[in-house]
Amino acid sequence: MAINNSDGSAVEVSGISKQYAGKQGVVQALADVSFGVDPGEFVCIVGPSGCGKTTLFRILGGLEPATRGEVTLDGSPVTAPTPNMGIVFQEYHLFPWRTVRGNIAFGIDNAAVDGVDQDERVQHLIDLVGLAGFGDSYPKSLSGGMKQRVALARALAIDPDLLLMDEPFAAVDAQTRERLQDELLDIWQETGKTILFVTHDVEEAIKLADTVVVMGKEPGQIRETVAIELDHPRSRADAAFGSYYERVRSLIDG
Ligand code: ADP
Ligand code: MG
Q: 14 - beta bridge partners?
């Protein structure tokens, strides 16, 4: 359970299987994956490359149909992308011809959010993700970490109840990654959103999550779900952090 008051949404993943028709026959990317996420909970999904994390993410986001099973968001089946979800990919997917401000505003333009002053909202988001002073910059002039901040702000722009993030910090350097992790935790605590965060980095998962869903591969499946009962901020130098790390590591290694 999350420690904050929350407007986040509840997610239920029930018996999800996914098969792809590959060149060498059928690939069972996911086999009977089920878990629940409470409103405001921060859940990290970890597992080795190829265990179906991105496939699960795409099904959660309504970007891809499951072969079997169902995902619900606050009780309603997810069959297509909805404005209740903000999605952040590993690649930034920014529009090079739009400024930081323009990229963030794009989400609001599209969702036609009523009753908000758009300029004020975009400025608030720029400040929230630590990009004050860069509103008029273009993506090409930004570092990887800054681009990922823009992508996060754009996902937050429509004020979704659920944030879906697929290895969002994998492409940035270690020091920037730590900063982004801390900022994401601040935003999570401030907004109470539900966050589903995919990573192959066990340390990142232990640092962020209320609950870590550990997956194994061939076929992609859930090995175990581990509740991380540590206060924030968490330090990897802490003995309890270390034992969670070892536990999740050994679950992944099987
Ligand atoms: P992860 O994100 O954990 O690395 P993926 O979800 O990307 O894993 O992939 C899971 C498995 O499904 C892999 O064996 C991968 O090769 C296969 N796969 C993923 N997408 C497709 C696709 N579009 N067509 C065929 N096979 C796919
Ligand atoms: Mg992936």
A: 70
Q: How far apart are the C-alpha atoms of 19 and 199, rounded to whole Å?
A: 22
Residue spans of the chain under pLDDT 70:
1-6, 109-116
Alpha helices (H) along the chain: 53-60, 100-111, 118-128, 144-156, 174-191, 202-208, 239-253
Q: Rounded to an integer, what distance in angstroms lies between the CA atom of residue 201 and that of residue 199?
A: 5
Q: Which amino acid is at 137?
A: S
Dihedral (Cα; 70, 75, 76, 80), 10-degree rounding:
-60
Q: How far is the CA of 117 from the centre of ligand 2 (A)?
A: 36
* Residue (of 33, 5, 47) closest to 197 by Cα position: 47
The whole-model pTM stands at 0.93
CA 108 from chain centre, in angstroms, equals: 20
Residue nearest to atom 23 of ligand 1 (CA): 20
Contact 205, 46 (CB under 8 A): yes
The binding-site residues of ligand 1, defined as CB within 6 angstroms of any ligand atom, are 20, 22, 27, 29, 47, 49-55, 220
Pick from 127, 232, 120, 252: nearest CA to 181: 232
Rounded distance between C-alpha atoms, residue 111 and residue 87, angstroms: 14
Pocket test for ligand 1, best of 17, 30, 55, 196 (most atoms within 8 A of CB): 55
Query: Which ligand lies nearest the alpha carbon of 91?
Result: 2
Å from CA of 53 to ligand 1 middle:
8
